[in-house]
Every structure is written in C-alpha cells, then in structure tokens.
Design brief:
With about 260 residues, the protein is of the alpha/beta class. It is built from 11 helices and 8 strands. α1 runs parallel beside α2 (about 50-55). The chain binds 2-phosphoglycolic acid (PGA).
Length: about 260
C-alpha cells in the first residue's frame, strides 16, 4: 500500500561525494524531523551507507539511483537489490533517461531491473518520458505507454507498490518544466496502461505517478497539488538544503 503522503524524491545523481551527501542528509534529517511530506534521498551508491546513518531515526527515507538485474553473481561493478536493502534502501530509481540515453540501458534491462527490485521487496521508481524529437513527431503518448508496457512485461505486481515518474527528457535540467495539465495528461496515459495491464489489482492503492523535470520552488505546488500525482522527482533543485526546505514547505501546505 502506497504511503498516503506525497513524495519528494531527491535524485542527487553524480553531484556529491560521501562527505557532501552526509552533510546535506544530516541537515535535512534535523530540520525535517516532523515533516508530513515523505522525503526520499537518492545519493550515489558509495554514499548510501553514510546517508543511511545520518537519517536513521528520522522521517526521511533512502533511495538508490540504479540497481543490477541479477540477485547476485559475477557482474563487475554492479550492485544487487539485496545489497541495497541491507543498507536501508527502500526506493530504487529504474530506467532514468540519462541511463537510457548515455549508458545504453535498454527496455529489456529495465524490465529485468524492475523484476529484481520487486523481488527484493523494494519500491521501484520507473522513469519514462519522451524526447523533444518524439514530441515534435506527436509520438509522446505512444512513447510513454510503450515504455511502461515494456518495463512491466510479464511482471505481476501482486499488490506490490510501484511508482512511475513521468520525466520528459527535454524538461530535465532545462528550467522548462511542463505545465500541470500536461503532466496530468501523461499521468492519465500511464494510468490507463496500468489499468489495462493489471485488471485485478487496485491500481489506485499500489501505484503512484510522479512528475520530474525542472521541478523547483516556483512550480512544485502545481504538481504536488494535483490529485493525479503522488509527488515529484527532483534533481538540480534537490542539491541545496534551503531550496529543499522551501519546496517541502510548499508541499506541506498543499497536502
Ligand atoms: P531536474 O532532474 O530536476 O534537474 O530536472 C530531474 C531528474 O532527472 O530526475
């Protein structure tokens, strides 16, 4: 059952080393102690243990930016879902567009990673979204629904939580967040695919849709105020404590 509070997932990407991650996590853990919004921090793999320690006993949660599709074995440099879980990770980002674009992550790999995350009892945050060219070709809905379908191929949710983040590729790090009606339209497309795939489960209870792409203090209330969205995935604006406080304060108001 999905957390009923709106989610703020901070994707720190490759921006912080161990010390900077731990410092920011400690500040947030202290100052967001009684915060009703669910804040999830996703540092680099190497900082997970340090951040886990900093947010221990706080209301914050830990997320990872990626995962291996294998449960264990000979796969140099990869990290298994069980290893993440051992460190206190609860959420795992899968299929971020930067990995699709620059690291050769395929639909098949994303499908296997999703399976691994669900198998281990963690909550996947599946990222989908069209490129600017696909949008210009009027293929946006087709691309989004295709990505959701192939990521979930042969996967039974059986009541497990799933988060899908709509992140238009061109809106990431560009200061060009989409308007709320567009994010809601994409959320409807995603929800329709899920309803078609999972007729037996209550999609409302176990699946949440997020928006990501240039979310900041000026626009966050629009997204988190929407009934169709369960929260936001934030990159650039999640790198500074003061910006996070301002964004989360706005989320608390619209809750
Ligand atoms: P951004 O990144 O907030 O910097 O646009 C979002 C993301 O890539 O998840």
């Amino acid at each position: 059952m999905l957390n009923k509070n709106k989610l703020f997932i901070a994707n720190w990407k490759m921006n912080f080393g161990w010390q900077a991650s731990v410092d920011l996590a400690s500040t947030l853990a202290k100052d967001l102690a009684t915060n009703p919004t669910k804040v999830v921090l996703c540092p680099a793999f190497t900082s997970l243990a340090g951040v886990a320690k900093s947010i221990h006993d706080s209301s914050l949660s830990l997320g990872a930016q990626d995962v291996s599709w294998l449960d264990k074995g000979n796969l140099t440099g990869e990290v298994a879902a069980a290893t993440l879980k051992e460190l206190g990770v609860e959420y795992v980002i899968v299929g971020h567009s930067e990995r699709r674009q620059y690291l050769g992550e395929t639909e098949d790999m994303i499908n296997k990673k999703l399976q691994a995350v669900l198998r281990s009892g963690l909550i996947p945050v599946l990222c989908v979204g069209e490129t600017f060219a696909e949008r210009q070709q009027e293929r946006k809905d087709f691309v989004i629904s295709g990505q959701v379908e192939s990521a979930l191929k042969d996967i039974k949710l059986n009541g497990k939580d799933l988060l899908v983040a709509y992140e238009p590729v061109w809106a990431i790090g560009s200061d060009q967040a989409v308007k709320i009606d567009e994010a809601e339209a994409a959320a409807r497309v995603i929800k329709q695919v899920l309803i078609d795939l999972y007729p037996d489960i209550d999609v409302k209870k176990t699946v949440g849709i997020l928006y990501g792409g240039s979310v900041d203090e000026s626009n966050i209330s629009e997204f988190t105020g929407s009934k169709l969205l369960s929260g936001v995935l934030v990159g650039g604006a999640s790198l500074h404590a003061d910006e996070i406080f301002k964004m989360v304060a706005k989320m608390n108001i619209v809750k």
